[in-house]
Specification:
CATH architecture of one domain: Orthogonal Bundle
Number of strands: 0
Strand content: under 5%
Shape: globular
Structural class: mainly alpha
Oligomer: single chain
Helix content: 40-55%
Distance between the termini: 96 Å
CATH class of one domain: Mainly Alpha
Largest sheet: none
Radius of gyration: 31 Å
């Protein structure tokens, strides 16, 4: 009987120590804080150009129109400059809507506006590299 009393008192003492160490309060889990990463920072125009956008297949990795299918479809060589619409709005519109009568299809259904803008900015950088 004495052993039971000692064990019970020891258990109560141990629980008391635990509660005292924790302040007797239930720990509240903090809500996870998302890192402030914007979509634009998560992926670059170059990544989209070479990946999801599929641009490099025709225009080549450096924008010279020498991608695997570029020569056959006469893809634009960005390093030679633009015939028209070489500003951000023009390049974005071309990516989004395509160019009628050419192999340049519109990608507005596959890419969101931010992705199109990032690709357009990258294409403009490629065009500057050729001049």
């Amino acid at each position: 009987m004495m052993n039971r009393k000692v064990i019970s008192l020891a258990a109560i003492a141990a629980i008391s120590v635990v509660f005292a160490a924790c302040g007797g309060k239930k720990e509240e889990s903090a809500a996870p804080v998302a890192a402030p990463v914007e979509a634009a920072a998560a992926v670059s125009g170059k990544d989209l150009y070479n990946g999801k956008g599929g641009c490099a297949a025709c225009h080549g990795e450096t924008g010279k129109g020498d991608g695997p299918t570029g020569v056959a479809v006469k893809a634009a060589n960005f390093t030679a400059g633009f015939k028209k619409g070489g500003d951000l709005a023009g390049v974005s519109a071309t990516i989004k809507n395509g160019v009628p009568g050419t192999a340049m299809a519109g990608y507005g259904a596959q890419l969101n506006d931010e992705e199109i803008k990032l690709i357009a900015e990258y294409v403009i950088e490629l065009s500057k590299a050729g001049h």
